[in-house]
Amino acid sequence: MGETKIDHTMNFIENILNRIDPTPGRVALQEARDGRVVAVTCAELLASVRTARCFLADAGLKKGDRCALLGHNNIQWVALDLAMMAEGIIVVPLYARQAPAEMVGMMKDCSPSLICCGDESLAEGIRRNWSAAPPIARFDEVFTAAKAAGSGMDDAPVALADDDPVTIIYTSGTSGEPKGVILNVANLNHMVPCTNARLDLLMGPRVEADRVFHYLPFCFAGSWILLLTCLSRNSTLTMSTDLNKLVDEMKLAAPNYFLNVPALLERVRSGIEDQLNNKGGFALKLFHKGKAAWFRRHEHAARGLDWVWLAVAEAMVFPAIRKKLGPNLTALISGSAPLAKETQLFFMMIGLPVLQVYGLTETTAICTMDHPHHVTPGRVGPAIPGIEMKLGENDEILVRGPNVFPSYWNRSEETAKSLAGGWFHTGDQGEVDVAGNWAVIGRIKNLIIPASGHNIAPEPIEEMVVKNLPGAEHVVLVGNGRSYLAAIITTGPGAAVTTDQVEAAIEAVNSQLPHYKRVRAFHVSEGQFTIDNGLLTANSKLKRDAIAARYQSQIDGLYGATKA
How many domains, in total, are found in the chain? Predict the structure, then answer.
């Protein structure tokens, strides 16, 4: 049972339902809820899928219709997702925290025949913003439908061709209107075995089920791919239901691995170091000495007594830190944005590898994955099997393969542009080393071109400022057409920074940069960038155009006089 057996004569949804069916007593999914675990067996999950399929059929939905799926992660969301795919209905997953007006805009674009909502408040938000909305069904209505599981519904999914659409996932819209990305059966048929194979390498031969914790919304492509992967292998997936209780829920799940965004890993690392600093004493000294020795060894610059401090830290300090994070943890997985190299090295130091994944919704969430046994810190791994990647103009990453989406929904011109020359143009600027490991530098459309004419990727510089400025939450560089770069800085909740601290941080960063990349002015905002105020996307990425518009007067002020 150590290696996942994928039947290549069946498509991905057939494999998932087949994997669930033979083991009715096995736990399929769990919710961490109110300090306890709520579990469903394979038999119970299949019964819920059957009930949902009956409801969808009674509602008149048929293969090729669109159905919006709007709710927080839970067992019912998964059952509905599986039911729609089994019926050949195109799933349109939406982010429950997004502004109702934005969600309605996406739904108007794809014209769903039905909207399935997790609760009444979500349904009411749609009604307020769309008087002509199609029928709305709450999850509890679906699963208390008159036709129950024993109605004679055939468990086998409808026949699907490779080019049949499975889902329309809307992009985050960092600099424009969200676009609906169509993913088809062939995309999923390729990707799910790829992710399974990589997890087999990570976990090795084993009989017991993988324990997986999950807190990222399933409406995001990478999160959804992990869900489908877990359902297709011997896994027990525990879903978070309260982001304010992540630490407690993770203890309940006791996972072997889980998917993360870099921001959480950065907070975990900072939290560990803050706790040690507050504790002080000999443990803190051992940690600092051991950490310094470990990093010097990694850089091949070890000093005389480093081996002593490192041996003591690896025996007494690092294992204790790792155990507190989770007794069963084998690895952490990180995606959605590049992870700071220093943070990746920190977790490696305490004996916990972080495996990076890179991809876009248009590439079925994944282009590259770190090999569990050959990780290059600061890079996002090699291309997955069957996928070609190369650099184009401005070092743009181009991708070709069965993971690439067929088209955007109702956007033929944008589809043709993004797939020009038979390659998907990611919009990401990257580089690749001699071993084939990729690194993502930034977004092409985010490039700043000051009056000097240089092309400057802002992301690495922004990351350096945040690293050197404790308390900073976001840093956004500006300077298109200007004579120098400037920064808008926000602080985290309850945090504050002084002018002297900012100047010291920027000076430290500037000392490592050529003259044309140096930051010459800054503005510290009293407000924050959030999803609710429209300055972050649904997956917490910067909306740079919106930020520039909101802070236009402050930006103009930064260029009102010559800065040193």
Answer: 3
User: What confidence score (pLDDT) does residue 536 get?
Assistant: 85
Closest to 484 measured CA to CA, from 444, 456, 525, 465: 456
φ/ψ of residue 133, rounded to 5: -60, 145
Residues near 96 by Cβ (< 8 Å), separated by ≥ 6? Answer: 70, 71, 72, 118, 122, 217, 219
Helix (H) or strand (E) holding 427: strand 424-432
Looking at the structure, tell me whether residues 106 and 238 fall in a common domain: yes
Do 12 and 185 contact (CB within 8 A), yes or no?
yes
Any idea what the CATH number is for the domain that residue 160 is in? 3.40.50.12780
Residue with tokens 């991905």: 12
Q: Is residue 80 part of a domain?
A: yes
Residue 542 DSSP class? B
> Which pLDDT value is given to residue 373?
92
* Domain identity same for 271 and 300: yes
At residue 175, the pLDDT reads: 53
Q: Does any domain span residue 6?
A: no
Distance of alpha carbon 187 from alpha carbon 80, whole angstroms: 21
* Residue 3 forms part of a structural domain: no
pLDDT of the residue at 564: 36
CA 144 – CA 289 distance, rounded (Å): 60
Burial 438-448 (b: 16+ CB within 10 A, else e): bbbbbbbebbb
The DSSP 8-state label assigned to residue 536 in this structure reads B
What local confidence, expressed as pLDDT, does residue 22 receive? 77
Q: Which of the listed residues 382, 412, 444 is the one where a domain comes to its end?
A: 444
Cβ 19 vs Cβ 35: under 8 Å: no
Element (H, E) at 439: strand 438-443
Domain check: are 243 and 270 in the same one? no
Q: What is the pLDDT of residue 176?
A: 60
Dihedral sign, Cα of residue 525, residue 531, residue 534, residue 540: positive
Q: How far apart are CA 210 and CA 39, in angstroms?
A: 15
Both tokens of residue 182?
């169509």
Query: Residue 185 falls within a domain, yes or no?
Result: yes
Q: Where are the beta strands (DSSP E) in 241-394?
A: 257-260, 332-334, 354-358, 368-369, 388-391
Does one domain contain both 342 and 383? yes
d(CA 119, CA 32): 19
157-178 confidence digits (pLDDT tens): 999 999 999 999 998 765 567 8
- List, for the chain, all residue ranges whose pLDDT scores fall below the cut of 70: 1-6, 145-153, 173-176, 539, 561-564
HSE-CB at 69 with a 13 A cutoff on CA atoms is 32
Helices of type H across 299-434: 306-316, 318-325, 341-349, 412-418
| 3-class DSSP state of 17 | helix
Same structural domain, 236 and 272? no
DSSP string for 130-162: -TT---EEEHHHHTT-SS-TTS---SSPPP--T
Predicted confidence at residue 562, as pLDDT, reads 41
Which tens digit of pLDDT belongs to each residue from 515-545?
889 999 999 998 888 888 888 887 678 888 8
Contact (Cβ atoms closer than 8 angstroms) between residue 169 and residue 361 = yes
- Containing structural domain, residue 32: 12-256
